[in-house]
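Quality-control log, excerpt.
Job 1 of 2 completed; input and output follow.
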Amino acid sequence: MATIPGPATTLDGLTAEQIEAAPGPANAISGLLTVRSVGWSNPSDKQGTDWYAKCQPGEKAIAGGWDEIQGNARFTYNRPTPDDNAWWVHTFTAENTAPASGSIWVVCSK
C-alpha cells in the first residue's frame, strides 16, 4: 500500500512563519513611485502660463493632475511632457476678478 504524504511544512526551504513575514506584493512596489508637486499662480490678466511638476533624473512621469484653491482659471494642457520627465499644465485666468492659484502634481516611477 502506498503512503500518502502529509501536509508540507516548508516551501523552497522557508517555514510558514518565514513566508508570512516576507514582504508581499504591496511592499514590493514600495519606493518605486513618488508624488511630487509644485504650486502655480496666475495673475488676473488672462495671461496663459505653462507649469511643470518635474520628476527627478532617472524617473518617468506616469500620471499627474492639478487643483485650484483660489480664483477662476482654465486649463488647456494636462498631460506628461513629450520626454515623460514632468507633468505639464497650461493655465490662464478666466476672469479679471482675482488671481488664481493651486497645485500641480506628478506621479514619478523609478
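Job 2 of 2 completed; input and output follow.
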Amino acid sequence: MATNAFAAGAYASVQNLAGLGQAAQKPATGKSGLDFGSVLQGALENVAQAGHKAEGQAMAAASGKADMVDVVTAVAESEAALETLVAVRDRVIAAYEDIMRMPI
C-alpha cells in the first residue's frame, strides 16, 4: 500500500515539476492552445532544471551547506522526472511503431 502512495506522490510531484497540471486543464485548440511539441519541450526543460537542482543540492551538501533531506528530495524529484520522461519516450516510440505497422 505504501508503494501506491509513493507512486501517486511521485506522479503528482512530476506533474507539478513539469507544469502538466496546468497544461492538462487548458484545451489544445488550434494555434492558440498547447501542442504536443510544446508540452514535450516544457517537460524536457523541467527535467533539466530538476537535474540542475539535484546537482546543486549535492554540491551544497558536499561543502556542508545543505541538509541531506533536501539533497535526497531533490535527487528523488529528478529521478521521478527522468523516469516519467523515459516512459513518455517509450510510449511515443511504441505509438510510432504501431502506426508504421498499419496497413495502407
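Post-run check on job 2. DSSP finds four helices and no strands in the chain.
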